[in-house]
């Protein structure tokens, strides 16, 4: 399967997000700016540049319902951007962080968003109508290291996080006056804000890219040990599986259906994981079929990369990796975003971005079997 389209937007892209109608894409070109591009006349045109942060923007999310953009940065700040006429107006969010903000995501109802940070905390931000500003409540003393990923349960109350302490956790984020009593599960409003529902000690390495399935029954996240973890019935009686693979580690994952997950990362080629009728998850295939170039030994390849080719007088062919190459991405993929229409629960299209500066759109319409 080949990519539907690919475009080089920058030398390196930290993160990206799409507008609600998917006519515009916002990217961070590995600096303190957000560049917004619009597709017209068969080409991408830069229509806006958002300046406000002082350091690299590490996370961006574009809300589907309200057309708001939220950004977080290593400068420890977050802004919510509202479009007024032809301008994007930023509103500062009070995070009270003493370390970098690393990731952000709007909740399904878009009345809150979560920010993970290097301060071992998670900020749950919401809008105070009386004061006309965004404030946050902080989940503290739960993580032992940086929070690398956040993911909202479809019920809008529970939040899953991953951390470089190797653990995945699930918290209640119920905020009185913001969340409704009938939202989430029947008992969700009885739980205190920040109460830990589950702690999953499946990985002994850094954990990344946590996501919920469309129904909220399954949780998936990646470990830096080339393993992906699946947990069924997280909120009731957790049952975990892990799938180890031979390729390089993943950085992010995406459920395209209840029984199919796409993983992306250092291998530059999206990986497909599927769940069979018996409930077992396994690696299915790479999305791209690539040609394998001849190469030398893995030892000489690694040694040459470390010390430089010319030092040992080796040819470039002998030091090229013995891995498939020539695909849509040529460097680590760090971000995967679904492209949904309306209330679709099955993802037929998604996009990826990475350290090669490309945004690539992928289609699954012709995939032989998308498990429902």
UniProtKB/TrEMBL annotation:
Transmembrane segments: none annotated. Keywords: Actin-binding, Cytoplasm, Cytoskeleton, Repeat, WD repeat. WD repeats lie at residues 50-91, 140-172. One of its GO terms (molecular function) is actin filament binding. GO terms for cellular component: Arp2/3 protein complex. Gene3D superfamilies: YVTN repeat-like/Quinoprotein amine dehydrogenase (2.130.10.10). It is found in: Cytoplasm, Cytoskeleton. GO terms for biological process: Arp2/3 complex-mediated actin nucleation. Component of the Arp2/3 complex composed of ARP2, ARP3, ARPC1/p41-ARC, ARPC2/p34-ARC, ARPC3/p21-ARC, ARPC4/p20-ARC and ARPC5/p16-ARC. Belongs to the WD repeat ARPC1 family. This is Actin-related protein 2/3 complex subunit. The lineage of its organism: Eukaryota, Viridiplantae, Streptophyta, Embryophyta, Tracheophyta.
């Amino acid at each position: 399967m080949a990519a539907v389209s690919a475009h080089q937007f920058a030398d390196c892209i930290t993160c990206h997000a799409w507008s609600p109608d998917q006519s515009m894409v916002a990217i961070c070109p590995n600096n303190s700016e957000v560049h917004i591009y619009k597709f017209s006349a068969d080409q991408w045109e830069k229509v806006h540049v958002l300046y406000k942060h002082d350091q690299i923007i590490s996370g961006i999310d574009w809300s589907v319902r309200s057309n708001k953009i939220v950004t977080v940065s290593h400068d420890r700040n977050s802004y919510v951007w509202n479009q007024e006429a032809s301008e994007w107006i930023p509103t500062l969010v009070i995070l009270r962080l003493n370390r970098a903000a690393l990731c952000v995501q709007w909740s399904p109802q878009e009345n809150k968003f979560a920010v993970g940070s290097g301060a071992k905390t998670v900020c749950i931000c919401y809008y105070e109508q009386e004061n006309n500003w965004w404030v946050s409540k902080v989940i503290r003393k739960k993580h032992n290291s940086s929070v690398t990923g956040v993911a909202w349960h479809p019920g809008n109350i529970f939040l899953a996080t991953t951390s470089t302490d190797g653990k995945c956790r699930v918290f209640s984020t119920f905020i009185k006056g913001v969340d409704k009593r009938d939202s989430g599960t029947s008992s969700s409003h009885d739980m205190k804000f920040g109460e830990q529902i589950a702690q999953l000690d499946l990985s002994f390495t850094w954990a990344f890219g946590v996501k919920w399935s469309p129904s909220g029954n399954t949780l998936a996240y990646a470990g830096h040990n080339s393993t992906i973890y699946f947990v069924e019935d997280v909120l009731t009686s957790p049952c975990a599986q892990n799938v180890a693979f031979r390729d390089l580690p993943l950085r992010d994952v995406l459920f395209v259906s209840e029984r199919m997950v796409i993983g992306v990362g250092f291998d530059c080629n999206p990986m497909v994981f599927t769940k069979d009728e018996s409930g077992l998850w396994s690696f299915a295939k790479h999305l791209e079929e690539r040609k394998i170039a001849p190469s030398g030994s893995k030892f000489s390849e690694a040694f040459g990369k470390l010390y430089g080719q010319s030092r040992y007088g080796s040819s470039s062919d002998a030091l090229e990796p013995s891995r498939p190459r020539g695909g849509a991405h040529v460097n680590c993929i760090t971000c995967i975003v679904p492209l949904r229409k309306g209330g679709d629960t099955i993802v037929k299209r998604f996009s990826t971005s990475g350290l090669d500066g490309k945004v690539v759109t992928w289609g699954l319409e012709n995939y032989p079997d998308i498990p429902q």
